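REVIEWER CHECKLIST
Item 1: Sequence provided? yes
Item 2: Single chain? yes
Item 3: Sequence as submitted:
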Amino acid sequence: MEKAAFKLDTYQFKKASIDFNIPNNTELDISFNPKGTFYQKENRYELSFDTIIRCKETGTEVINISCVAYFSFNTAVSLNEIPNFFYPNSLAILFPYIRAFVSTISLQANTQPILLPTINLIGLTDELRYNTVAK
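Item 4: Structure as written out by the authors:
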């Protein structure tokens, strides 16, 4: 069996803001802001993944989470040689941690739990690739 081209080394939540005063049956609108920094000398990729959730009716921000994940590649690559599948897969690997974090925090607050849906993040592939810089 061939080894994976990259792996998640670790992740860390840098910022979390949650307003628990959400009216019942409020529809939520979720948006993402993915950015990346590729460190070629260390052969590592830093993914900054911001998740912002607003009430659809009022536009009020209810959740703002900033999470950073650190990936490493098993072979030396340049920015242009990062495999195309890395971008959507790195987001798909990180998002369940964000979902679990939001759920756990809302459950611990003893309020109505906030359960983020599973989301196909393939639409963020080009945005992440465009928002990736090399250092």
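Item 5: Key structural point noted by reviewer: The first strand starts at residue 6 and ends at 18.
Item 6: Recommendation: ____
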